[in-house]
Design goal:
Blueprint: H1 9-20, H2 23-35, H3 39-66, H4 70-76, H5 82-117, H6 129-137, H7 140-159, H8 162-188, H9 194-201, H10 212-227, H11 234-240, H12 248-276, H13 284-298, H14 301-339, H15 346-367, H16 382-419, H17 429-455
Helix pairs in contact: 1-8, 1-12, 1-14, 2-10, 2-12, 2-13, 3-4, 3-10, 3-11, 3-12, 3-16, 3-17, 4-5, 5-7, 5-14, 5-15, 5-16, 6-13, 7-8, 7-14, 7-15, 8-12, 8-14, 9-12, 10-17, 11-14, 13-14, 14-15, 16-17
Bound molecules: phenylalanine.
């Protein structure tokens, strides 16, 4: 398999930032920030990103030191550590399918706005956005076919290995930022847009009252970990393709910074427009596919143009995440084959992984967020079920185990050796190790409790 390193730092950064930037930045962060104390939430989030930075640095270090797929990399940190890699691999296997379907939903809305722009019958053409969304959801076959299209695009990017990922992300991510800036320009120039900025940024310190601060930190932490693509096999796999001369700490800091920047910019693009047209703020699919589409429809013909731009940037955000979700699967299957003394061509690996991800994606497409009449595991729709298992359970356990192994077992000497490769210096060693050994594990436990409480509606805090 061509298992070559990323050729440039910029290519690596764009691939990693591309993984981090996804729907979590678009429909998760801005709404959570507005609904949980505005600027006060942002301060909590900044703290969570520092913890996220600690975890990301650890994952990149484990990845680069092993240079293999996630399970083998963990085995290299200790014979009995392979199970952490298995959790991470499982996490990725569960999450990828529904990410493919979400990409397909964004694709559908890009096409719907393009159709309106071209005056074609397949456009949304001023129709009611809520009715359009329901009609689309009830058509599982269409969603499944669009999911297939997204899987095929990802497959094509991945045939060329790291160089394919690098080439795609190098152009896609700057384009995404450009598109985002265009939408921001429009959104901020609408009369009444300042209410949206107030929703996002006005500090509400009362969220910290009583035990409220625990809730806010748990929410902000969950959002930060998911947004930074942590606790899965991703940063460990990308780390394995990072040149030995690269400064891991610096790269991790840049990834965290850009992911947060895009999340804030997404809020500035979305909420001023939502408020300017007098809509209620929302999060999740409702925000992306109903509220925002209503805003674009309200804008008239020019709205179709901005709708195209916005949903195209959402498609790009998701495709760059999809490649980062497929690649770890390819890497660990390749490892398993190598251990058995076999070699599987990259083409075959990419196709095999794609078929699997399409299958779970199609399940989610036909399930239509629980409206498709399929069996509902534990009473959840399939997307939430996969999300609960991966993001809610496997990811925190994996991340916790990683901090404990790195902080307590491998220790500062191991970490220093990896951080200072290629003549790099590591100035924040003491601060880093305190975070890794004590603060990060405790914090992950808090986030874990928050996720479980949230999913099962336990109302713990
Ligand atoms: N980080 C992405 C987001 O913010 C989601 C994602 C999670 C992508 C895990 C890949 C892996 O939306």
């Amino acid at each position: 398999m061509d298992n070559k390193n990323f050729k440039s730092r910029f290519g690596f950064l764009m691939a990693a930032v591309g993984s981090a930037v996804g729907v979590g930045n678009l429909w998760g962060f801005p709404y959570k920030m507005g609904a949980n104390g505005g600027f006060a939430f942002l301060l909590c989030y900044a703290f969570c990103v520092v913890i996220g930075y600690v975890i990301m640095t650890g994952e990149l270090a484990i990845g680069r030191s092993g240079g293999k797929g996630v399970i083998e990399n963990y085995k290299l940190t200790g014979k009995r550590n392979g199970w952490i890699g298995v959790l991470a691999a499982l996490s990725v296997l569960l999450i990828t399918g529904f990410c493919c379907t979400l990409t397909a939903y964004c694709m559908k809305y890009f096409l719907a706005n393009l159709g309106t722009l071209l005056n074609a019958s397949w456009g949304i053409n001023g129709g009611d956005a809520a009715a359009y969304w329901d009609a689309f959801l009830s058509n599982g076959l269409e969603a499944a076919l669009l999911t297939l299209l997204c899987v095929v695009i990802t497959m094509v990017i991945l045939f060329k290995g790291t160089s394919g990922i690098e080439k795609f992300c190098k152009y896609a991510m700057p384009l995404l930022v450009l598109l985002l800036l265009i939408v921001i320009g429009r959104s901020l120039s609408l009369p009444g847009s300042s209410a949206g900025l107030a929703f996002m940024f006005k500090p509400d310190w009362s969220v910290f009252q009583g035990t409220g601060w625990i809730t806010v930190f748990a929410r902000a932490g969950g959002q930060a970990f998911f947004s930074l693509s942590l606790g899965m096999a991703i940063m460990i796999t990308y780390g394995a393709y990072l040149n030995k001369t690269e400064n891991i700490g610096k790269n991790a800091a840049l990834i965290c910074f850009f992911d947060t920047l895009v999340a804030i910019l997404a809020g500035v693009a979305i909420f001023p427009a939502v408020f300017a047209f007098g809509h209620e703020p929302a999060g999740g699919t409702g925000l992306l596919f109903v509220t925002l589409q209503t805003v674009f429809t309200d804008m008239g013909m020019i709205g179709a143009f901005f709708g195209c731009i916005f949903y195209l940037l959402a498609v790009i955000a998701e495709l760059t995440s999809l490649v980062s979700l497929f690649e770890p699967q390819i890497a660990f299957i390749n490892d398993v084959a190598a251990i058995k003394g076999k070699t599987i061509s990259r083409t075959k690996l990419v196709i095999g992984v794609s078929i699997f991800n399409f299958a779970t994606g199609a399940l989610v497409a036909f399930d239509a967020l629980g409206k498709g009449g399929l069996i509902q595991p534990l009473g959840f729709c399939w997307m939430d079920f996969f999300d609960l298992f991966s993001e809610g359970i496997l990811m925190p356990i994996g991340a916790l185990a990683m901090t404990l192994i790195l902080g307590w077992k491998l220790g500062p000497k191991w970490m220093e050796a990896e951080m200072t490769q290629g003549g790099n210096t590591w100035k924040s060693k003491q601060f880093y190790m305190v975070c890794l050994k004590y603060i990060a594990p405790l914090f992950i436990l808090l986030v874990f409790a928050g996720q479980i409480s949230n999913f099962f509606g336990l109302g713990w805090f």
